[in-house]
Structure to design on (222 residues):
């Protein structure tokens, strides 16, 4: 069964450092998303991506965040200068035009 | 604003039936999803409703009333493995962003 894969599963970084979280969406999907979930809190939408551009982003997705689809398979989330409050589980998801979103297993980001 | 409300926590007994409610107030409506999330894991899709009525899928059913801004997830013949958080999410507009409720933590007791 096709699945969304994310790497790494856990990333520890120092405050102020840049991190890149990687995702391989399901191959025939058209819409890609990043969500985050701070421990014990609800899932929060960050950004959606369609046709090689951002289609929507939340207030959380400020200038410190960027997304890229550098090739036909990968979808990345970059945080330029991490803050302690960026510590969370980051989920990548993808969907077809009319299907539900399928989630990857997440990357746990810990900023120290 | 956009708002989705669910009970924070519910407790039920193994073998019983439980109903988890979700109410929403959103700028538009283009479908409601239920996801299951075990602690430390990704949400997994359970059901999708876009028209009023009941969708049944094995032990799980989901109901939608668009006029009332209301949905419920019904779990029958509860098993211990059903202990998880259940997330209600709404696709508000013609775009594909999902707006999420905070989730209902379901605790199953023997």
């Amino acid at each position: 069964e096709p699945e969304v894969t994310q790497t790494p599963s856990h990333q520890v970084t120092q405050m102020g450092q840049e991190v890149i979280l990687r995702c391989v969406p399901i191959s025939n999907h058209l819409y890609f998303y990043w969500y985050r979930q701070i421990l014990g809190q609800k899932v929060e939408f960050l950004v959606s991506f369609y046709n090689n551009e951002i289609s929507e982003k939340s207030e959380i997705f400020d200038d410190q965040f960027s997304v890229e689809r550098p090739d036909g398979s990968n979808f990345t989330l970059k945080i330029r200068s991490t803050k302690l409050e960026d510590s969370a589980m980051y989920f990548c998801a993808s969907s077809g035009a009319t299907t539900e979103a399928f989630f990857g297993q997440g990357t746990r980001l810990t900023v120290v | 604003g956009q708002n989705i409300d669910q009970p924070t926590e519910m407790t039920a007994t193994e073998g019983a039936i439980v109903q988890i409610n979700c109410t929403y107030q959103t700028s538009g409506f283009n479908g409601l999803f239920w996801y299951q999330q075990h602690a430390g894991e990704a949400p997994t899709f359970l059901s999708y409703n876009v028209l009023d009525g009941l969708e049944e899928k094995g032990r799980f059913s989901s109901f939608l009333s668009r006029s009332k801004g209301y949905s419920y997830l019904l779990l029958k013949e509860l098993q211990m493995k059903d202990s998880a958080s259940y997330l209600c999410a709404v696709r508000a507009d013609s775009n594909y962003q999902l707006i999420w409720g905070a989730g209902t933590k379901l605790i199953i007791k023997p």
